[in-house]
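Q: Got a minute? One more chain.
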Amino acid sequence: MANENLLKILGKFRGKKIMVLGDIMLDKFIWGEVNRISPEAPVQVVAVTKENFVPGGAANVSNNIASLGAGAVMTGIVGNDNAKDELVMELEKKKVDVSGMFVDRERPTIQKVRVIGRSQQLLRFDYEKKGYLDAHIEDQIFAFIESRIDEIDAVIVSDYAKGTVTKGLMENLIELCNSKGKIIVIDPKPQHRDFYRGATLITPNHTEAHQMANFFEENNNNEEIEGMGKKLMEYLGSNVLITRGEKGMSLFEKNGKVTHIPTFAKEVYDIVGAGDTSVATLTLALAAGASFREAAMIANYAAGIVVAKIGTATASIDELKKSIEDG
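A: Always. Here it is, folded:
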């Protein structure tokens, strides 16, 4: 019966529209065969067989929303470069609204290039320039959000601490969402903890929660998790969902309820992008009328799907239905 309720919620995903604010990235994957060591240095030689691009970071959250049959509106910053063009093309393929992506000519589009050999990640190159965005672009982003807030069902903040998420922007955004009765879910970074006060829900992983709560031991047992979750919930005035890898998720609601949800992952090949999938699915479920517990369970199923895939991946609505049905 519980699974039937979850499936009913999935049926309400189509027609929902979610705005995603955060650090927009392009992920490039270089795939190849590894059969020998270089004669020039003690390193592996990768004979490249193919390359592909996929949206990463906050753009991967938008990509996941689109894969689940809902509308996604992307806002944040990109550079004036080829990576931006590639990223826009990939997002438009999925019908993601890119009208809120603003060009910052002072920095490149964030790009992560991963080299994969024999299904293993061998190396990663990062192209980025850190530092908070300037006040002019911050104002542009908030004005864009304000102009579209009435047509969307929820906001996701995907914070990778690359400069898009600022204290002033978050204060204005949370106040706007609360005044309009909009759900706002935050995938946080510990150094920005105080930016998130008053959000609907924050979704740190275990390590992030540990740092945000200033706990000195990191055991990942239920007793420690409950101490961290309650401390964060009270400090931020938000509901809290801590993702715990193979131990699943722990949900702390402001009404005092604590729920531990076991993982639904059957095989784990690659955790790249699993947090993006989780926050996208969770927020869509809340927008579709799910309780926090139901939304967390659906997100857990979605995360279990993508960790069984190699590279930055998404979960489709059909995959999610099947996973819940198989239970």
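A: The chain has a mean pLDDT of 90.
Q: Perfect, thanks.
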